[in-house]
Amino acid sequence: MRLFTQHVAAGLLCLLLAATRPAAAQTPAAPALPAGTGSLTGTVLDSLKKEPVPYATVVLLPATGDKAITGVAADDAGKFSLTKLTPGPFRLRVSYVGYGTQTRSVTVTAGATDVGTFRLPTAGTALAEAVIIGQKPVVEIRPDRMVYNADQDATNAGGTAADVLRKAPLLAVDGDGNVKMRGSSNFKVLVNNKPSPTLASNLAEALKGIPAEQIKSVEVITTPPAKYDGEGTAGIINIVLKKGVEQGLNGRIGTSLGSRNSGVNGSLNFKTKKLGFTSSGGTGGWYGPNKSERVRFGKTDGSTLTQQGVGNYGGQWMFGSLGLDYDLNEHQSLSLAASVNRYAGHDYNNLLNDYVSPTQPQTNQLFTRATNSKFSGFNGELTGTYTKTYALPRKEWSVLGQYARNDGTFGYDFDQYLNSYTNLEVGSASYRERSRGRTPGSEVTLQTDLTQPFGEKQTLETGLKGIFRSTGSVANVDGLTRGVTDDFVRLPGRSTDFSYDQNVQSAYATYTNKLTKKLTLSVGSRLERTALSADFRTNDTSFVRSYLTLLPNGNAQYAFSDNNSVRAAYSRRITRPYIDYLNPFIDRSDPKNLVYGNPGLNPELTDSYELSFNTNGKAGSLNVAASMRRTGNAIESIRLGPDANGVTRQTYANVASNAYYQLNFYGSAKPAKGWDISGGPDIQYIVRRSPSLGIERRGFTASLNFNTSYKLPKKFTLQGFMFGSLPSPDLQGRGSANLYYQVGAKKTFLNDKADLVLNFAAPFNDYWLYRNTTDTPTFSETNRNYAYQRSFRLSFNYRFGQAQQTKQRKSISNDDVKGGGSKQGGQ
């Protein structure tokens, strides 16, 4: 396998060199000078974030009248250039969907004229042309994504990334911390457009290790273009962390204390003329009670299983990052970024198990079991980037490399007391068991991208990428039976030891053409080659296989005006299973429901279609989107059994074809001065078919997201949030309804450098009962999980220095695997 990887890496390197040499050698031919030799150059920035507004429309108008003379689109850096102009007085009008329009008088001379910077306000913050209110909206609706500005939401203070994702459009987080996007768990999460293997392997726990104060915004991208990896059939969630300053030094320190979590965090950043430095870090913990119930009825044998569990959970997290940016010259820059993310925790549960079978009374079983599950994860990443821009606007070439290390551990200890309703002393345990396992992992990524404009209206984006991923799982189980063994002994047939390599090489191209002033068309495709190999050392088996996947996509956008547009998009995306789906190790922590992965899983493909309408104005914004997603050969969690002893098995298999028909409304408004509201409903019709299981389920579900804030005198702010959803049809049953709400108050003082925030979650109910049902030909089951949501949190944050944002560098995005769910509960 190593020889194979070396050959693939060498081939990819040759392709990278072949693709980049022509780009470096091309120089645009100098045009013959016409009668008009004047030119205008400038930059378009977001007025609040001080970031570029890519592809903003710049139109040259006469001194009087509105008939356009010529126009151009700004490049990725927000820069524009109008050439071959006749000297004289004119006006420049700059606009972009989602922003207010600015018009400025200019004078063209016989030479070059720099008109400076246009700072566009977002449409929701523009009272009149060039009049700006210094506050970003909580939610921005852009043509290709929805952006939740977490730094504008007071109730996030002292929380974690999981708390932030609860409030983003189209997202939902349940009581166990599991995230869904548009009702699907099949999506990819990026951090600053970069992948995190920790997020892929155990998202629910890893999100607890990112403090909310570090998050600037959350971008929800439902139809990603070809430059993104093909993974994530529901789309991509990009968590944008706060960065440094334009010049000088700044930083932040914060602390929080609450009934569910607490922590400390901070950042320190500076920027000189050519060198930028960013850093952040923090540590904290989470804790709380848990309670669950399960009732199962056997349809064939009349058996009954009743389980009641109660306990607590807890854990600690640590997060740190460093970044360096260096501008070699006007057109070349280097960046280096490093980060570490570690978490460790436990979930203690005291289970009462009562199994009764009228037809096989010898299998009846009554016992209590005290289980302490343990887990940990570590992710370390090092990323280097070289970026080159050119005199030709919008042309850019970049080379990126990343090494990531991702290691995890898992295990449990339990003591079982037969024929007892309560726990006894450990020495009285009829059976004891312990298990320890680890999942080592590493990734190496190489990537190059080229953006080549053809005139002012056409752009070609191309790139090559290789991901070389290695992971696996090693676990052992020891048991002690009272009266049979004096000490723990290794249990034969219960261990696992396997390695798994997944290498993905890809190439993409996207062509964009602004056909008219109102119509823009973009088409592209991505070709990915996947090579898999696995070695199962416990039973001396292995496999090697590879496949090619073509992933086309495209979109067309028609702008009725600067603030109104309609967009149609199509994309095909792939899902590759990650380690939690593949690991054949059998988790027996629940004696009546065994859980294990399936190493024979195949990838799934999804075709997505979307039609959306966006409108922005002084009163607010609205996005209406109708979409359809079809997934064949879908990876589903399925339940099998029960066997003669009343034991069911839970694993993953390619057994279904799923279709989602969705209508989503999301808007923001300012009903009165200082009052902001945003949110909207999401309605879905879901069809799930599995011929192999003889199942077809269909039905409606819906959800509602609502966020509001109100500014009071003396720098007080009140904030509220609510999310609710109806049950949804699953392949073998029905999912749970969901409800979560939060209110908070913030006081800003010390010349706007300090905040004191008090938050209350679910103040009117102690818990939310998540009720899931499973119905198969052999059994029916109801699970109840008590998510204790009522909590409070008091947070303090202090900022020093400047607070402007640096420009964002290119980064790697390995969004190509389907991640596992949460291993533990809690918020």
Description:
The structure is a single chain. This protein is mostly beta strands and 827 residues long. The protein contains five helices and 45 strands. The longest helix has 24 residues, at 2-25. The chain is globular and about 100 Å long. Keywords: Cell outer membrane, Membrane, Receptor, Signal.
Q: Helix and strand layout, with pairings?
A:
Blueprint: H1 2-25, E1 38-46, E2 57-62, E3 70-73, E4 79-85, E5 88-95, E6 102-108, E7 112-120, E8 126-128, E9 131-132, E10 139-142, E11 145-148, H2 161-165, E12 171-173, E13 179-181, E14 188-191, H3 197-201, H4 203-206, E15 215-221, E16 236-241, E17 248-258, E18 261-271, E19 275-298, E20 304-327, E21 332-356, E22 365-389, E23 396-418, E24 431-439, E25 441-454, E26 458-481, E27 489-490, E28 496-514, E29 519-536, E30 541-561, E31 564-575, H5 579-582, E32 593-595, E33 604-617, E34 620-640, E35 648-672, E36 675-690, E37 695-712, E38 716-725, E39 729-730, E40 733-734, E41 738-749, E42 754-761, E43 767-775, E44 779-788, E45 791-801
Parallel strand pairs: 1-7, 14-16, 32-35
Antiparallel strand pairs: 1-4, 2-3, 2-5, 5-6, 8-9, 10-11, 11-15, 12-13, 15-16, 17-18, 17-45, 18-19, 19-20, 19-44, 20-21, 21-22, 22-23, 23-24, 23-25, 24-26, 25-26, 26-27, 26-28, 28-29, 29-30, 30-31, 31-33, 33-34, 34-35, 35-36, 36-37, 37-38, 38-41, 39-40, 40-43, 41-42, 42-45, 43-44
